[in-house]
Write the structure tokens for this entry.
Amino acid sequence: MSELLTVAEVAQVMRCSDDAVVRRFAKMPGVIDLGRAETRNKRRYRVLRIPKAVVEKFLSTKAGHPVHVEAPARPERRRQSNNWKNLAVLNLAKIGKQNGCEDRETFKQIAHHARWLAASIPEEYWAEICSPTNLMLWDDEEEK
């Protein structure tokens, strides 16, 4: 079975609107409609799950050559927690201990960078910014 993609994921791959994806794929064979039908008092509500193979076939037909679709990464979802600060402290302490860190300035630097990421950068770019190359640049900035 092919991986199922959401309308938003297909729209991101095709670089078009969600509505355009729904119009193009709603009646295609293999597409799953989890929404509700239209009734007299309520309009139709569409929730589509589109197999990756259907998207690839559609794009291959349009392009005239085989197309491989890479599904966008799904962000990890976490529930909000009343004790999130305690969990963050425990996680940071554990990581610090595993790496033999007891330096107060290092913990301050980590907190500073974490605050900067959370306040300034969209989450989908965090991994790229926190790559080993960029982290070494951060370390050089702190030493100056």
Q: What stands out?
A: The first helix runs from residue 7 to 14. The CA atoms of residues 19 and 80 lie 31 Å apart. Residues 4-63 form one domain. Strands lie at 4-6, 32-33, 48-51.
